[in-house]
UniProtKB/TrEMBL annotation:
This is Putative enoyl-CoA hydratase echA8. NCBIfam families: PRK07327.1. Keywords: Lyase. CDD domains: crotonase-like (cd06558). The gene is echA8_4. Its EC number is 4.2.1.17.
Length: 269
């Protein structure tokens, strides 16, 4: 294993094929929910991969039966309660999106089980996204009581259209892997037992292709995302403004108590 990945603790690395690096989000006991360490590592790893001369393609997946169960509740509480944490995580959330977009190496995501939060950011921004048919993709921001920031505004309307994006982002309804493929939110949906092998197959093809042509094609296509940068920046700023308000406290409490939230009926907005 390259020394450049030795310091990571929440991400596990292996090489399933020649010049293919597989990243596994590794908190299976918490369904790979992103705590502060994983959130930071998911932000930083794409720069290391971009500079790794031995890697041509990347797979991102989760350990066990889940891809990623979203943000760790303790981290969410710290964001709401502490300005320093809020400012730091805002910067990480911004950099996570732009680092995935700007990473020159093609990224393949392999998602099963729940796919939420920071993991979902990288999963849907991956160049080729593969899901198990029974996977559950959920953007839970408004259910938590904050605006749909992270990746949502930059990528959902482009992938599945504004009507579907608004439906799922405003209501937080889950999208199965099969439905996600149907509406264009992901590249492929396969049976769960086929997921890992399919991701390796696709990544191997990418790793063996014409590298400058593949990387330049990715760069050009990702200008669609770069053009949406101001939209993304606005959504992320509004999400983190929401962390200072009362709705997120109720949303977080309802998650912890496993009940329906009782949000205030009105807002000055």
């Amino acid at each position: 294993m390259s020394d450049r990945y030795a310091a990571y603790t929440r991400l596990k690395f292996d090489y399933p094929a020649d010049r293919v690096l597989r990243i596994t989000m590794n908190r299976p006991e918490r369904l790979n929910a992103a705590d502060e360490t994983m959130h930071r590592e998911l932000t930083e790893v794409w720069r290391d991969i971009d500079g790794d001369p031995d890697i041509n393609a990347v797979i991102l997946t989760g350990a066990g039966k889940a891809f990623s169960a979203g943000g760790d509740f303790e981290m969410v509480q710290n964001i709401a309660d502490n300005f320093e944490t809020r400012a730091r995580v805002w910067k990480e959330a911004r950099d996570l999106v732009y680092n995935v977009i700007n990473c020159g190496k093609p990224i393949v995501s392999a998602m099963r089980g729940p796919a939420v939060g920071a993991g979902l950011v990288a999963g849907l921004l991956s160049d080729i996204s593969i899901v198990a048919k029974k996977a559950r993709i959920i953007d839970g921001h408004t259910r938590l009581g904050v605006a749909a920031g992270d990746h949502a505004a930059i990528v959902w309307p482009l992938l599945c259209g504004m009507a579907k994006a608004k439906y799922y982002l405003l209501l937080c309804d889950p999208v199965t892997g099969e439905e996600a493929e149907r509406i264009g939110l992901v590249s492929l949906a396969v049976e769960d037992e086929e997921l890992d092998a399919k991701a390796v197959e696709v990544a191997t093809r990418l790793a063996g292709g014409a590298q400058s042509a593949i990387r330049w094609t990715k760069y050009a296509l990702n200008n669609w995302y770069r053009m949406a940068g101001p939209t993304f920046d606005t959504s992320l700023a509004l999400e983190f403004l929401g962390f200072t308000g009362p709705e997120v406290q109720e949303g977080l409490a309802s998650h912890r108590e496993k009940r329906k939230p009782n949000f205030p009926p009105s807002t000055p907005i």
